[in-house]
Design goal:
Elements (H helix, E strand, L loop, with lengths): L2 H17 L46 E5 L2 H7 L1 H9 L4 E7 L10 H18 L2 E8 L8 H14 L3 E4 L7 H18 L14 E5 L12 E4 L4 H8 L13 H16 L4 E6 L6 E3 L3
Parallel strand pairs: 1-2, 1-4, 2-3, 4-5, 6-8
Antiparallel strand pairs: 5-7, 6-7
Helix pairs in contact: 4-7, 5-6
The structure holds zinc ion.
Zinc ion binds next to helix 2.
């Protein structure tokens, strides 16, 4: 696609996005640069299986609740926080669930102390974004993949009823991230099965997305661009309460994720955007909300 074609494509897509105010907007990005609406309906949703339809189930008029599920708090807020901020800004409920405190992430601070710092930072950051921070307190680096943790996540999903979940993509070099991917996929399945009796009734998660995380880049293919321009500043303020955001643990998270939001914005025609990979086959889409 040459520059002129891309400009036309972005212009066309922008008009399409502006014309649609419902939660699900679809465009197709074909090789020819033509843009059009993609139907998001017509797929029956099996219990426990993320659907491809309108997460609100009522024509998209209700803000969609969102849950970020990450191995570590840094992943939850840096790689998944902007989509959560975008949904809470629209009035949806936001929950950050970390399977561990990421307590072994500091080179200089003992895990017990660092874990407490991570917990407090998560709670402050979540408050800034109008969301809640929850933890399962598995040991950092040792998150197990078994039915105990899958049902624990299932229970949190059933309690908070997110329409959208954002989590890790499986193509990661970090074992905890790989574990989280497997755990969440099965937890979503368990959560949606009415025949599985838990404290809370079954809940179908309408959409499952994988986050654009520098540690999970193997075979990551973004197919959705979410406009986070309106919440960009608030999201960076929230992230800034974590010492590791400033690069104190060796990686410049601040520079990486703020630059990435600019780069993804350039590609999608938004000021700032987050790229996501959907669990189901979908055409490339540009969204103002999830
Ligand atoms: Zn991590």
């Amino acid at each position: 696609m040459n520059n002129a074609t891309r400009r036309n494509f972005l212009k066309d897509v922008g008009l399409g996005a502006a014309a649609l105010s419902v939660a699900v907007e679809g465009v197709s990005a074909s090789q020819t640069g033509q843009a059009g609406e993609a139907s998001q309906t017509g797929h029956g949703q099996m219990p426990g299986r993320p659907g491809t339809g309108d997460p609100a189930g009522e024509g998209g008029t209700r803000p969609t609740n969102i849950m970020a599920i990450a191995a570590h708090p840094g992943d939850a807020f840096f790689a998944m926080g902007a989509p959560v901020a975008a949904q809470t800004d629209l009035g949806g409920q936001g929950v950050f669930l970390s399977l561990s405190l990421g307590e072994k992430g500091s080179r200089t601070i003992p895990p017990a102390h660092y874990g407490q710092m991570q917990r407090e930072a998560s709670e402050r950051a979540a408050q800034t974004l109008g969301a809640r921070a929850l933890f399962l307190d598995y040991s950092d680096g040792e998150i197990p993949v078994n039915d105990e943790v899958k049902f624990a996540v299932c229970d949190v999903i059933r309690e908070h009823k997110p329409g959208v979940i954002v989590t890790h993509w499986r193509g990661s070099w970090h074992k905890d991230h790989q574990a989280c991917y497997s755990i969440v996929n099965d937890a979503v399945f368990y959560a949606g099965l009415p025949a599985i009796t838990r404290k809370h009734p079954a809940h179908n998660v309408a959409k499952l997305f994988f986050a654009d995380n520098w540690e999970d880049a193997t075979d990551f293919v973004s197919d959705t661009y979410l406009d986070v321009s309106a919440v960009f500043d608030r999201w960076t303020q929230a992230c800034a309460v974590f010492p590791m955001w400033r690069g104190e643990n060796g990686f410049r998270y601040n520079d990486y994720y703020t630059s990435l939001a600019v780069e993804r914005g350039c590609l999608s025609g938004f000021q700032h955007a987050v790229a996501l990979m959907s669990a189901s086959d979908q055409l490339t889409r540009r969204l103002h909300s999830l």
